[in-house]
């Protein structure tokens, strides 16, 4: 799956953090950011995505519609791994395990750990991102 949509420029504070990413991880980080934004653009229920910093990390929120949970991106100092984080009290990582335990490295209750020395697993990541961006809108109403 090729991501070809023109991506918006990140806000200046987010751009500074993205630029500080280790060179070994930068290409994967750009593709992961593009995957999040393009996935959101294809989900009418998410509305506009807010790109900001949370705990000093790039974060993606469905601030207007509240359809999903926040997605944060991180990386290790060497750039060997990226992390896609969601709130630990969601059921998302358990849902992702049911679908992708053989394709993704899922850590605890809040993280997908992505090695940067192999191709980005775009198809499963796109599905996981879509699930996160629609998490609240998919929950049964009580």
Keyword list:
142 residues, alpha+beta, six-stranded antiparallel sheet, 20% strand
Q: Could you write a compact summary of the structure shown?
A:
By secondary structure, this protein is α+β, with helices and mostly antiparallel strands.
Q: How many β-strand runs?
A: 6
- As a percent range, the share of helical residues equals 25-40%
Principal-axes geometry comes out as globular
Alpha-beta classification:
alpha+beta
Query: Order of strands across the widest beta sheet?
Result: 1-2-3-4-6-5
Question: In this structure, how is the largest beta sheet organized?
Answer: 6 strands, antiparallel
Distance between the termini: 37 Å
Report the average pLDDT across residues.
93
Description:
It is a single chain. The chain is α+β, with helices and mostly antiparallel strands. It is built from 5 helices and 6 strands; from the N terminus they run ααββββαββαα. It has a 6-stranded antiparallel β-sheet. β1 and β2 form a beta hairpin. α3 (92-100) packs antiparallel against α4. The chain is globular and about 45 Å long. The relative contact order is 0.19.
Write the layout of secondary structure elements.
Elements: H1 12-19, H2 23-41, E1 50-54, E2 57-61, E3 71-75, E4 81-85, H3 92-100, E5 105-107, E6 111-115, H4 122-133, H5 135-138
Antiparallel strand pairs: 1-2, 2-3, 3-4, 4-6, 5-6
Helix pairs in contact: 2-4, 3-4
